[in-house]
Design goal:
With 262 residues, the chain is of the alpha+beta class. The protein contains 9 helices and 10 strands.
Amino acid sequence: MDFLHQNRNDVTYNEIKENKGIPLYKQIKNILVEQVNNGIIGKGEKLPSERELCQKYKVSRITVRQALNELEKEGLVYRSHGKGTFVSQNRVEQPLFTFTTFENSLLNKGIKPGTRFIDINFVENSYQLSRILEVPLSQNLAKITLLGLGDNMPMAFYSSYFERELGIKMKELAVSYIEKGYSVTTFDLYKYIPGITSVVADQTFEASIADSYIAKMLEIKKGSPVLIVESKVYSRDGKPLEYKTAVYRGDKYRFSVVRNVF
């Protein structure tokens, strides 16, 4: 819908100026909130550019930027680097006591899932990874990176370390299924590897902020909130298989848990 030329619930420049008790940026913010609440700008739709909003309401770019910053802080909109500002969709919710695949967690919210294969590298081992994976320090490891997408927008960034041969198998499987149109993470691929009947993940969860690399991959601003899930993956008999970090956009994802109190 053309936001700039629609008439429904519109507000003129004079009406903004006459309302002197409220700062201009708050008036712009309130207008945009009303447009979203009335369905004039839908979930996931792009907002007008800063320049377009300046022209429409005859205010400065600083005023418009302040209004958009307020909306972003409240989680009502998000910015995608190089693409613009969009109305936030409902966050994907992942319950902690049950395992739900990335694909199903998005489908449950009506979001189209996807996966992009980023790279496979063979990297030097470290003392930490050597202990976790029980691979001699002298042996290189395979590092696979994937990007999880929702409606073609980045949602999660995955980095996984494997013993070299297992990493090569994982890469082949990931590329094969992604090319067929499936949305997969490494967790989804173990069932296709001979000899692995089930896996267990020891996970920790941490709130953090995006560094410059993660911000680029997830198309968010540096310093934006993210959720980091660290997974140590084992076969049922206790053999280490994978060390993985998953970084989720804080404005797109949340984890929930139900606990017995007594």
